[in-house]
Write a structure and sequence with these properties.
Blueprint: H1 3-6, H2 10-19, E1 22-25, E2 33-36, E3 40-43, H3 53-61, E4 64-68, H4 72-80, H5 93-104, E5 108-115, E6 122-132, E7 135-143, H6 148-163, E8 167-171, H7 175-178, E9 183-186, H8 187-198, H9 210-223
Parallel strand pairs: 7-8
Antiparallel strand pairs: 1-2, 3-8, 3-9, 4-5, 5-6, 6-7
């Protein structure tokens, strides 16, 4: 088989997501990518998301500024860097290349969390993922200061609700995500949820009106 046939392209990657697969590398230095299709899939509910009161106050009136797609490369680099409890990463250069390509064609998006104004502030957290139909496939998040990644997640959920998304795929349930309502569903159930979400035509927007976004964040607290 030729090298060209083995190459993973952005189009192949999108087809894999539609089928419920996602790629990971063994390590930062690993050269091969592996397709994963877990028996149990982590899903974060868009309606039923649990937002603690303290975190809501931080999101609405804390020191952070939040943007979308302002520094996609900075976010994926932040997710790839070692952190306490995560000394190794699955984001290798091939992952960077593929998701950078998806970002350029409008399918991969980032949420950036800044300490201070984005023009002069410090990127202290964020997350990125893939948008297809009415599904958002969360890939990774990072935080350099307390609450930064949590603020990014709250903004993501609020934006997905505003933009008409139906499914937020977290890949795996973790203790960190469980506090927000993340739960596992069997593979067959996930595939049904995914098929339903693929029928939707959600529309990602980088800069929703601030008052609408704030209202949706307040609604998260009431609904969860």
């Amino acid at each position: 088989m030729s090298r060209r046939q083995l190459e993973i392209t952005p189009d192949l990657l999108l087809r894999a997501y539609r089928a419920g697969l996602f790629p990971m590398a063994e390590s930062r230095r690993g050269e091969r990518l592996y397709w994963l299709d877990p028996e149990q899939r982590g899903v974060i509910p868009l309606h039923g998301f649990h937002l603690p009161r303290r975190l809501q106050r931080t999101v609405l009136s804390g020191p952070f500024q939040v943007t979308s797609n302002r520094d996609f490369h900075g976010v994926i680099m932040g997710c790839a860097e070692p952190a306490e409890g995560r000394e190794e990463t699955w984001i290798n250069p091939e992952i960077e290349r593929l998701f950078g390509a998806l970002h350029r064609i409008g399918h991969a998006h980032s949420i950036e969390v800044w300490f201070g104004p984005p023009e002069a502030g410090e990127l202290v957290g964020g997350l990125y993922g893939v948008a297809l139909g009415g599904a958002f496939f969360g890939e990774s998040m990072f935080s350099r200061v307390r609450d930064a990644s949590k603020v990014g997640l709250v903004h993501l959920v609020a934006r997905l609700r505003l933009f008409g998304f139906r499914l937020l795929d977290a890949q795996f349930q973790t203790t960190h995500l469980a506090q927000f309502g993340c739960h596992e569903v069997p593979r067959a159930q996930y595939k049904r949820l995914l098929a339903e979400a693929m029928e939707e035509a959600a529309n990602w927007q980088d800069a929703p009106k601030a008052d609408l976004l704030a209202a949706e964040i307040r609604a998260l607290r009431a609904a969860g």
